[in-house]
Amino acid sequence: MPLYEYDCNDCGENFDLMRKLSDTSPVKCEKCESENVKKRFNVSSFKLIGKGFYANDYQNKGREKKRKTGK
């Protein structure tokens, strides 16, 4: 289940909830139980870098071929 971050617009509390994608029940603040909450959007800490990913491998091979042939 994905972990989502929420901010309460009434009391200012910041909290995390694990919710299913199919879950349609309203989110309530853990501190004041208000339904006036807003989902936070954060940058993911997951990055695809380095060798082993096809985009990097193909790009490097293409550059090497161009260098060798001079085209």
Helix/strand layout:
Blueprint: E1 3-8, E2 14-18, E3 37-40, H1 54-69
Antiparallel strand pairs: 1-2, 1-3
What does this structure look like?
It is a single chain. The chain has 71 residues and is an alpha+beta fold. It has a domain at 1-40: Rubrerythrin, domain 2, CATH 2.20.28.10. The chain is built from one helix and three strands, in the order βββα. It has one helix spanning 54-69; strands at residues 3-8, 14-18, 37-40. Strands 2-1-3 form a three-stranded antiparallel β-sheet, with no helix packed on it. It is elongated, with a radius of gyration of 22 Å. The model has no long low-confidence stretch (mean pLDDT 77).
Identify the notable features of this structure and list them briefly.
71 residues, alpha+beta, Rubrerythrin, domain 2, three-stranded antiparallel sheet, 21% strand, elongated
Supply the number of helical segments.
Answer: 1
The assembly state of the depicted protein chains is single chain
The share of residues in helices is 10-25%
What would you report as the Rg, rounded to the nearest angstrom? 22 Å
How would you spell out the order of helices and strands?
EEEH
- Sheet with the most strands, sense and barrel status: 3 strands, antiparallel
Q: How far is the N terminus from the C terminus?
A: 49 Å
- The CATH topology label of the domain at 1-40 is Rubrerythrin, domain 2
Percentage of residues in strands: 15-25%
Structural class from helices and strands? alpha+beta
If strands are numbered along the chain, what order do they take across the biggest sheet?
Answer: 2-1-3
- CATH architecture label of the domain at 1-40: Single Sheet
CATH C-level class of the domain at 1-40: Mainly Beta
